Request: fold
Amino acid sequence: MSNLQLRNPVRGFLVSVGLDPEILVQFQYNPDKVTDKRSVSYATLNAPGMLMPVRQYSAGGERTLSFTVVVDGLFKGPADDEIDVARDERGGIGPELNKYRAFVHPRTERWQDANGAPDGFTGLYAGAETVFAAPPTCRFGFGERVVDCVVTEVSITEQLYNPDLDPIRAEVQVTLAELTPYNPDPAAGGAI
Reply:
């Protein structure tokens, strides 16, 4: 065997920034593709007698990354000696799926309390001021690519259930938006 075959595969991850306890998702199976999309805005300038309008660059648009990962409670992933999928007491992968959900709910240090709660995340905010807090910022790592971002969308498709109807396999689609790499003046309406 070569050294390459003995080595554990590198796993992608998503981790919260500045939240205690942190939300850490290490991908059991790396996505088979990552879509990296960037847009820019151009203003259309029209003038009488012009054959075609002129385009004037007006602003950079956001960079979004999207991918789909599989979470499987039945089989170990290629690096399962280091990475374990979070499961509940009945073997369901709900706690692992809630890690992804925590990235799109208002920021709270109690995010783990959503596991097993009948109302999920909703009950965490009853009477709390954090309802209006932004979801946590995060860092996406995939090989050499490390991007500070916010999760803008999570879509979970449950695919397999145990006898108690707890999900044991799911596909998770994630969309991220890169945070601006510079720090604009917040007094002038700058963003996070």
